[in-house]
Amino acid sequence: MKTMNCSICPRKCNIDRSTKFGACGLDDGCYVARASLHMWEEPPISGTKGSGAIFFSNCNLRCTFCQNSGISRSIVGKRLDENQLASEMLRLMEAGAHNINFVSPTPHVKTIIKAIKLAKKNGFTIPIVYNTNGYETIKTLTALNGLIDIYLPDLKYVSPELSRRFSGAWDYFEYASKAVLEMWRQVGTLSLDNSGIAKRGLIIRHLLLPNCVDEARRVLDFISNELPKDTFISLMSQYVPMAEAASVPPLNRRITKREYERAVGYALNIGFRNIFIQRFSSQTLEYTPDFSVYSD
After folding, report:
1. Is residue 208 in a domain?
2. Does the pLDDT of residue 283 top 70, yes or no?
């Protein structure tokens, strides 16, 4: 996949990232803000030993409420080529990671594809997780087909008005809805090994936002209408006002217990059987890693 005239994501900024910054704020480099064992994903991803999370710098969305705003809006961390990224994958595997978890990977896909192929030539054997905001093109996902074992996308909104207001992308659902269906086509329903660790498949995340239970229902209705009822869904209660969201109603407050219970209840009522439910005490910064250092 060429970097010139970049069309990796739906922004399709058509910029030569070897000479200018793209809409994601990146040049053609691959920047890793943190690579470490991470215990704060869904249970089949983190397991007992941790997910080998590789957090990339910058993002193709501009969410007002971004929970990783410390790395999503500016270049942070080390610039790695495909050989160095493959080495990090192998290092984390040797450290006991259940999988390698590429977090916010989209602008870095060119390097990621090369790194996966190199790592596999050098003995890499654990599953690969593509942990994305969902704002993806079918072209990019097609390039990843056969390389990704587990897709972990957000499905943030159905409403164009909310996605424009909160993430600067009025066409979010237009792309994310098609992306989720393509991910399911590639990997299917989540399968687990005998220890309950994810081997292959799809988990769809939805972070419940304040005053947005109706939007959660729209998201759940889409999944219910388009995918099997045994699709794994992660309904997240961990929202904390961060970045400029702290001064933007209704995002300037945590969700209420009642809001979360209504969203979970709706998912159960329409027949979903595999739902990851967070403790309400998850509304804490504990889930946000320390990006001040590149940690082992």
Report:
1. yes
2. no
